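User: Fold this; tokens only.

Assistant: Input:
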Amino acid sequence: MSTIKVALAGAGAFGIKHLDAIKLIDGVEVISLISRDLDKTKETAAKYGIGHVTTDLADSLALKELDAVILCTPTQMHADQSIACMKAGKHVQVEIPLADSLKGAEDVVALQKQTGLVAMCGHTRRFNPSHQYVHNKIKAGEFNIQQMDVQTYFFRRTNMNALGQARSWTDHLLWHHAAHTVDLFAYQTGSPIVKANAIQGPIHPTLGIAMDMSIQLKAANGAICTLSLSFNNDGPLGTFFRYIGDTATYIARYDDLAQSTKEGKEEKIDVSKVAVSMNGIELQDREFFAAIREGREPNSSVTRVLPCYQVLHQLEQQLI
């Protein structure tokens, strides 16, 4: 395979991040852009030099030269669209979450095993240099997690995306934002989650979702995780990770990492040499395309992240 030809579905805030990342990767070309607003999609396609534009994923899947699809569409569409891509013989990367139900996730995994295609989910925290640094310390036997303390905070009392634009779908603290930390905790500890507890706050009268949530996790090796999530927080926004271990305490904010000192200060750690880029989305995309070229299972394959969705299902049952 020379140039990998890709379609991207969903030209919203996260789709743009992928388009910007792919521009930095050799041997990959986005040949089709799919989104619900045709005029806006044409504008974006023109900006990125994409020749084929449609509002229907099936139109792109019919392109014979197409090799792979990246899905940045609403959560509720992820499982069905991933299945449609594989049925059309295309490799697929779907943004987190893989599905909004355990059955949906299991259906995607089952089809991947039948087809042998590369199917990957965008669990970006596995790729952020800050978390990769910690992971490398763990693999080298220099650090073991005792506790992860994580805060995921946004202000979303109206249905807006990261660019402040109106969404056509509703985001979810459990099936989207908690998925990042549930998967990362098991990945970093190298140990399956054996206990999971959850409580949630009031349901928003318009959005129909809980705006606040608290989750506790325990891994088989004894490590624990406490996760607080909110759509009611005025700021700062984003996710803050504190890794408390046997030899150090690390604090991660997206692609930044610091080590906490006994005096309560933070000493910044240079993670610029951890990977070929500081951009977690770019590193995620590089892994997807490398797995296609090398005919191997990628990090964050749908099979490898399935345990996360099993835990989310357990937590959802507690919240019903």
